Amino acid sequence: MAGVAEHFEHGADVGVRGRGATPAEAFAGAAAALGSLWAADASSVRPQLTRSVVCEAEDLERLLVAFLDELIFLFATRRILLASLDVEIDAPPGGPARLVARGTGERYDPARHESTVEPKGATFTTLRVAPESGGWVAQCVVDV
Q: Is 6 within the bounds of a domain?
């Protein structure tokens, strides 16, 4: 996964943030930060399955929420952790933003994957997708 992943505190919930040279890298970083809530050691996740996520939204902020919600749904229903994730974003001026992500991973195994929390959903709290310091930042708070 490209981009830098990090968490930030936000009350009882957890903020996830990604930074990268492009919006796609920042989104991948946010996804990695979200994934590390389920599997504290991302290197323990094996690339055994392939999954794709496709989202469309009016703008990049709503696209980020749709993307993180899809990842939460993937974990909650299929119990799949991602080992790698390639994100592509097309955001034409005046048109809807579209994201295609392709990832590899495996089913969650509590015997091998140390979990910190299980996210319930992404909220609009502190939502931000913006240029920052010559790159991009994408962040959102996750209900835990």
A: no
pTM greater than the 0.85 cutoff: yes
pLDDT in tens, 101-117: 999 999 998 888 877 77
Distance CA 52, CA 108 (A): 17
| Contact between residue 81 and residue 45 where contact means Cβ atoms under 8 Å apart | yes
Residue 77 maps to a domain: yes
Cβ atoms of 80 and 49 within 8 Å: the answer is yes
Cα–Cα distance for residue pair 62/128, rounded to 1 Å: 9
* Joined tokens for residue 120: 């319930």
Residue 118 lies in a domain: yes
Q: What is the pLDDT of residues 35-88, one digit of tens each?
A: 888 887 878 899 999 999 999 999 999 999 999 999 999 988 899 999 999 999
| CATH number of the domain enclosing 52 | 3.55.10.10
- The Cα–Cα gap between 113 and 98 comes to 32
